[in-house]
Write a structure and sequence with these properties.
Bound molecules: beta-D-fucopyranose
Helix content: 25-40%
Shape: globular
Distance between the termini: 28 Å
Structural class: alpha/beta
Number of strands: 16
């Protein structure tokens, strides 16, 4: 349907388009013991043997807690006018609630002053996965009370920083928190329990709703949204298997990956097609919850990395490149990696058409709602060459293809308002530790030296021109 991978003409973005880079607190700040910060679930998880590759932790990370001014300089040098960062809840409320830690808040004031001095507009994410451990000890997101504690925290942060921050993101990727953190246990807090994951799903959404209201009450004119990781689901129709089974599988997978969050937010209901085990049980969904969750968004944050592909197959007899489908999908369907498509070192398929389709679908489902790509980017096996440069051609190609897809989507009617690349800096990539590098700026973790990669110059040029150059007929190797 689209043709983003062929060479073409340069494509302009809409006037006033936001160009920025994104990071998250636990991934870059380090200084986990500084100025009264309390422990988060990620401190605990990273210290649990076997959970994070190589035993890496966020204790030092990029030391951005101390080097924030240098990092703001990097943004300025690239000509980026927007920065998405997250606030660490345990810096502000070391015990989750109760006594506020002014020193923790002051860090964000310093950061915001630095951004303001450089003409960089902030977008603050309130929850990018670092739940205070004290709240986890009381049940974490499985407990309804955590949604209310989140609203208190949101009110405190918005009250303190609202004169400097207008764009607010409540929660980052609730699916990943529910699924990776509570259904399969590969992220903090390391729980593997379907019922817990279903409760966490509802309480994160409720927290978003209550938190949004709190930010709006504290900051007049605030733009408030949420960031979802969204995964277009594509099917390969073939002579094998039934077309109806494949379509049913597509609907169930789409509900599990996207609808479980999109539908409550946009329509105030959980999707009918979702696997029953993923849905919060009725007794958890109290009167008024769905109305709170579905309060109109000012924008939707979209994180896009990769689509899911389905085809007919036998989940009990997987062939090369195949995987079992989402639990709840039946009828002889498997997930698979189409042959001939490239992957990043994360094993994620590179499929820019998926971004194009996603943006158009969202614009049709939520007409007029501004969309910001709040994350897109790739890991690459970056190294500093003997000339002291990081020539990350793979990332340039990835960005070029995805920016072209985004520009086409905007041209074809998607309500796309901005793009924040993931990430400004190489950082602590959760369970992968420091092995996977996503930055447009290289970080030497031994010295904390920052080296802008070749991709940062490419991205800066796109941002400056508000236009993505024509795709080359052949990629340099
Ligand atoms: C997303 C996370 C972000 C980063 C990227 C690679 O799921 O939101 O923190 O780790 O993936």
């Amino acid at each position: 349907m689209t043709n983003v991978t062929s060479p073409g003409e340069p494509l302009a973005f809409p006037p006033g388009f936001t160009w920025g880079a994104a990071t998250a607190a636990y991934q870059i700040e380090g200084a986990t013991g500084a100025d009264g910060r309390g422990p988060s679930v990620w401190d605990t998880f990273a210290r649990t043997p076997g959970k994070v590759r190589g035993g890496d932790t966020g204790d030092v990370a990029c030391d951005s807690y101390h080097r924030y001014a240098q990092d703001a300089d990097l943004l300025r040098a690239l000509g980026l006018r927007a920065y998405r960062f997250s606030v660490s809840w345990p810096r502000v409320f070391p015990a989750g609630g109760g006594q506020l830690n002014q020193a923790g808040l002051d860090y964000y004031k310093r950061l915001l002053d630095a951004l303001q001095e450089r003409g960089i507009a902030p977008a603050a994410t309130l929850f990018h996965w670092d739940l205070p451990q004290a709240l986890q000890d009381r049940g974490g997101w499985a407990a309804r009370d955590t949604a209310f504690r989140f609203a208190d925290y949101a009110a405190a942060v918005a009250g303190a920083l609202g004169d400097q921050v207008n764009r607010w993101i409540t929660v980052n990727e609730p699916l990943v928190v529910a699924h990776n953190g509570h259904r399969i246990g590969v992220h903090a807090p390391g729980v593997a329990d379907n019922a817990v994951a279903a409760a966490v799903t509802h309480h994160l959404l409720l927290g978003h709703g209550l938190g949004s209201a709190a930010v709006r009450a504290a900051v007049s004119g605030a733009e408030v949204g949420i960031t979802l990781n969204l995964t277009p689901v594509r099917v390969a129709v073939s002579a094998n298997g039934s077309a109806e089974a494949l379509e049913r599988a597509r609907r169930v997978t789409d509900a599990a990956l996207n609808g479980l969050f999109l539908e409550p937010l946009l329509s105030g209901r959980y999707p009918q097609d979702a696997p029953p085990a993923m849905l919060p049980p009725a007794e958890l969904v109290r009167d008024g919850d769905l109305a709170t969750i579905a309060a109109p968004l000012d924008f939707l944050g979209v994180n896009y990395y990769s689509p899911a592909h389905l085809r007919a197959g036998d989940p009990d007899n997987l062939r090369r490149g195949e995987d079992r489908p989402t639990p709840g999908v039946d009828g002889g369907v498997v997930q698979y990696q189409p042959e001939g498509m490239e992957h990043t070192p994360m094993g994620w398929l590179i499929d820019p058409d998926g971004l194009y389709e996603l943006l158009l679908r969202l614009s049709a489902d939520a007409p007029g709602l501004p969309l910001y790509i709040t994350e897109n980017g790739c890991a690459a096996e970056d190294y500093v060459n003997p000339d002291g440069q990081v020539n990350d051609l793979e990332r340039i190609k990835f960005l070029h293809l995805h920016l072209a897809a985004a520009a086409r989507a905007a041209r074809d009617g998607a309500t796309l308002a901005g793009y924040y690349v993931w990430s400004l800096l190489d950082n602590f990539e959760w369970a992968y530790g420091y092995q996977k590098r996503f930055g447009i700026v290289y970080v030497d973790f031994a010295t904390q030296q920052r080296i802008p990669k070749a991709s940062s110059a490419f991205f800066a040029q796109v941002a400056r021109d508000n236009c993505v150059p024509a795709l080359p007929a052949a990629w340099p190797v």
